[in-house]
Amino acid sequence: MRDTVPVAGQQWNTAAYAAHGRFVAELAGGVVELLAVRSGEEILDLGCGDGALTERLVAAGAVVTGVDASPTMVAAARARGLRVDQTSATELRYEAAFDAVFSNAALHWIRDASAVLRGVHRALRPGGRFVAEMGGQGNIAAIRTALQAVLAPYGIDAEKAAASFFPSPAKYGRLLEEAGFRVDSMALIPRPTQLPDGMEIWLKTFRNGVLDRLAPGDREAAIERTVGLLRPILMDGEGNWTGDYVRLRFHAMRG
Question: Helix 141-151 to helix 216-234 angle, to the nearest 10 degrees?
Fold first, then answer.
């Protein structure tokens, strides 16, 4: 039986994310290096989540403002003593306020990329840079395919319900240029990612917005079937799970 309560996109549980999603910030070394923080510069951390990575930018000497749409994530980031605004990434109202905009693992949760990029362009000072990493074309393809197959009998389009956006370099590069950016670098990076807590916990942490469309009994059965489909593909003989992540990383300049 299908739950009739509509749930769009991802719903964030800060405790679950802190316990099972910390690898997202821990694996951000490459994009932080690309940002190349300079002491004293003003940076907007777009989709800052609970602020774990934002703290690293502050520690590097930047004056950082975080922004996130999730009230629970904003509260968690503020509890770290960070300056954080609560607003959607599609509704940024900053005007020439930052030397750089940074984002890690957030842009793929937002379908209206053009609205995001227009806001980022406004927020940057002339010559400012936009440096980000997000899910790219082919990201978690096996997981998404399994969920699509399992949820179809319930009348749920898992891709539509997830509301994710995993573009190719050509697609996102074009969107950046249309928004007034010059793309300096853009790379699609396969990054198989260890999931130390296993696939069931990953699904409950990162796809709850899809799974919560099901009644509780159906939800547990759907998770079990999805894990069963993925076990031969993403779990090794020792019981270790690896997510088939693909990241899109770029550096762009405001004209």
Answer: 140
Q: What is the 3-state secondary structure (H, E, C) of the chain?
A: CECCCCCCCCCCCHHHHHHHCCHHHHCCHHHHHHHCCCCCCEEEEECCCCCHHHHHHHHCCCEEEEEECCHHHHHHHHHCCCCEEECCHHHCCCCCCEEEEEEECCHHHCCCHHHHHHHHHHHEEEEEEEEEEEECCCCCHHHHHHHHHHHHHHCCCHHHHHCCCCCCHHHHHHHHHHCCEEEEEEEEEECCEEECCHHHHHHHHHCHHHHCCECHHHHHHHHHHHHHHHHHHHECCCCCEEECCEEEEEEEEEC
Distance CA(178)–CA(55), nearest Å, equals: 32
Total Cβ atoms within 10 A of residue 227: 19
Confidence of residue 255 (pLDDT cuts 50, 70, 90): confident
pLDDT tens string 153-175? 999 999 999 999 999 999 999 99
Which tens digits make up the pLDDT trace of 83-111? 999 999 999 999 999 999 999 999 999 99
Residue ranges and CATH numbers for the domains of the chain are 14-254 (3.40.50.150)
Helices 198-206 and 141-151, packing angle to 10 deg: 80
Q: Treating both helix axes as pointing N-terminal to C-terminal, what angle do 169-178 and 113-123 enclose, rounded to 10 degrees?
A: 50
213 vs 236: CA distance, rounded Å: 30
Q: Are 168 and 250 within 8 A, CB to CB?
A: no
